[in-house]
Q: What sequence folds into this?
């Protein structure tokens, strides 16, 4: 058996594994909510006033914030694992994972700003 | 275990070596988990865009709703809805496997089949709903 020592997975595998599952449990509870929201708007059950009333609520902001953090971590680890599996050139892999982290953080921060911006 | 650097002369088979495995149901379930995960990540910018619109001016809201109702919007909702239900169900399956439940080969196959069938029925249901 040859053990391949390569950049990336050494020593942080368990951390990734743990965070992937922890965020999965969080998402299990709160990920359905934005889809229900979308469905409410799509079906016409929610007009803009009703929607903003919902989103304006402190709990809604709290859930949205938790959702953003959990989804960013979960998606980052998930994509990282996929990249590690399919991209075999270490340099390219490291660059891709780094770029992904930057893009996802930016998206998460923009989303956070969006969630906390309206109302007051 | 061999000495350092031996992988340079004998390249290690890197995962996943799809071509050398016979396809079976749990493998399809696993790959579909990745595919649906990627689909959901791609859905995020769309959701952010729609959320941005829905919380803007009344005109922005109407535009966002119109986007959702457009053929592309419906297609995106259909793919994302199906992907989230699949990822959700198979995620529970993975968590159960991690906890050591249903680890036998038969149960792995059965649960993979159940999850895939649920996704298929969901896809049909959402298809009818969004048509």
A:
């Amino acid at each position: 058996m040859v053990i391949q020592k390569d950049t990336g997975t050494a020593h942080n595998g368990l951390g990734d594994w743990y965070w992937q599952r922890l965020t999965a449990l969080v998402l299990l509870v709160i990920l359905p909510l934005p889809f229900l929201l979308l469905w409410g708007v799509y079906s016409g059950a929610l007009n803009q006033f009703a929607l903003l009333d919902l989103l304006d609520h402190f709990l809604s902001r709290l859930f949205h914030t938790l959702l953003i953090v959990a989804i960013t971590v979960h998606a980052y680890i998930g994509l990282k694992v996929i990249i590690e599996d399919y991209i075999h050139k270490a340099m390219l892999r490291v660059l891709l994972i780094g770029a992904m982290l930057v893009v996802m953080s930016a998206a998460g921060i923009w989303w956070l700003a969006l969630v906390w911006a309206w109302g007051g | 275990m061999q000495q350092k650097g031996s992988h340079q002369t004998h390249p290690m088979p890197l995962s996943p070596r799809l071509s050398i495995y016979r396809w079976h149901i749990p493998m399809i379930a696993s790959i579909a988990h990745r595919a649906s995960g990627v689909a959901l990540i791609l859905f995020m910018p769309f959701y952010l865009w729609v959320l941005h619109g829905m919380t803007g001016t009344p005109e922005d809201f109407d535009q966002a709703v119109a986007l959702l109702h457009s053929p592309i919007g419906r297609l995106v909702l259909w793919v994302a809805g199906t992907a989230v239900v699949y990822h959700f169900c198979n995620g529970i399956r993975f968590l159960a496997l991690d906890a050591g439940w249903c680890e036998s080969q038969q149960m792995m196959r059965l649960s993979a089949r159940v999850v895939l069938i649920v996704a298929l029925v969901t896809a049909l249901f959402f298809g009818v709903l969004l048509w």
Q: What stands out?
A: The interface with chain A takes residues 1-2, 4, 6-7, 10, 12, 14-16, 34, 37-38, 40-41, 44-45, 47-48, 50-52, 54-55, 58, 61, 64-65, 68-69, 77, 80-81, 84, 88, 91-92, 94-95, 98 of chain B (CB under 8 Å).
